[in-house]
Write a structure and sequence with these properties.
By secondary structure, the chain is of the alpha+beta class. It has nine helices and 14 strands. The N terminus is likely disordered.
């Protein structure tokens, strides 16, 4: 086990209860779960509400936004991308659609202690991650040496990242992430009470299930006909999104059928043209506002139920691939 350095770098950084001490490290045996005081970081999640997830899909990446809460960085107008390694059993307070970054995004960066947000339960430990080695000169942050025990985040000689299990971690990257830097997309339940964006008791999707996030994301990805995002939704991993995406496709098929009249006569005679009509309808359905169904129904007026269904399945096969499509409608 590595020993603490004689000269520690945490000048005015985290209090002792927020640090990985030598004693904790000596007793760590690589176990997993809440009974363990330390645990490995597996992935980094940027979790978003449906409206923000649609923006990320439209923009083909995650863009920085201003720190807006009671952080001490608020008045400095710092822009960051928020990520966390945490996965919570009762549900995420950040949203339902998770854009996953690999742990390798931490490599070669500089780390700065920001603050513990003790108003959260559990306490959220905030660490700023940057390529700038002198960020402490312009912001009220303290440098962290993550390769020395004594920081809240520790990188072992083997390249494993270790954290304190009982705290929430909010890592603040001062950079944007393009879609091709993501490792996959998955979905979480939303906490029934707590919401980081809207506050406790004020979130319209509080308590919603992960599959509801999958429904919105699948709908929007099909509307965009975005093959790359579709691949990310089918990637394997912890809590794989594949089954939720399958449910979302079948649910969208039912919802489209409910918008169509059995008596309508199709004025579209090709499957590809029907798929284009379906894409337009899905774009409005993904918005989830009160006029979206009416607009979607109008867009589908040129096709009958059979042709619309053929167009939808053709779209799914084109975007998500034939193996996925065949697994649903074989």
């Amino acid at each position: 086990m590595p020993r603490l350095r004689e000269e520690r770098v945490l000048v005015a950084g985290p209090a002792e209860k927020y640090t990985i001490s030598q004693a904790l490290w000596d007793n760590y045996e690589g176990e997993y779960g809440w009974h363990s005081q330390l645990s490995e970081l597996a992935e980094l999640y940027h979790v978003a509400h449906p409206s923000d997830a649609r923006s990320i899909l439209n923009d083909e990446g995650i863009t920085k936004s201003l720190v807006f809460d009671k952080s001490k960085l608020l008045k400095h107008r710092v822009e960051v991308v928020w990520v966390s390694p945490n996965v919570w059993g009762p549900g995420s307070m950040y949203g339902t659609v998770a854009f996953v970054l690999p742990i390798s995004q931490l490599e070669g960066k500089h780390f700065y202690w920001v603050e513990p947000m003790t108003v959260y339960r559990p306490t959220a430990l905030r660490i700023l991650v940057s390529e700038n080695p002198k960020l402490y000169e312009s912001l009220p942050v303290e440098p962290l040496d993550v390769e020395a025990l004594g920081a809240p985040l520790y990188r072992t000689d083997a390249g494993t990242w270790i954290r304190l299990t009982k705290f929430n971690y909010e890592l603040m990257f001062d950079e944007d992430f393009a879609w091709n830097e993501l490792s996959r997309i998955t979905f979480f339940d939303h906490h029934r009470k707590y919401c980081n964006k809207h506050g406790a008791g004020n979130c319209s999707i509080a308590g919603s299930k992960a599959r509801e996030g999958a429904l919105i994301a699948t709908c929007h990805v099909l509307a965009l006909a975005d093959l790359e995002y579709a691949k990310l939704m089918l990637k394997p991993g912890e809590g794989s999104a594949r089954s939720k995406t399958t449910w979302a496709v079948l649910e969208l098929e039912k919802r489209l059928e409910s918008l169509l009249s059995d008596e309508s006569e199709s004025k579209i005679d090709t499957v590809s043209a029907a798929a284009a009509q379906v894409r337009a309808a899905l774009l409005f359905l993904s918005e989830r506002h009160h006029q979206s169904k009416t607009t979607a129904r109008t867009l589908l007026a040129l096709t009958d139920a059979e042709m619309a269904n053929r167009g939808f399945r053709h779209l799914v096969r084109t975007v998500f691939g034939k193996p996925f499509s065949d697994s649903i409608w074989s």
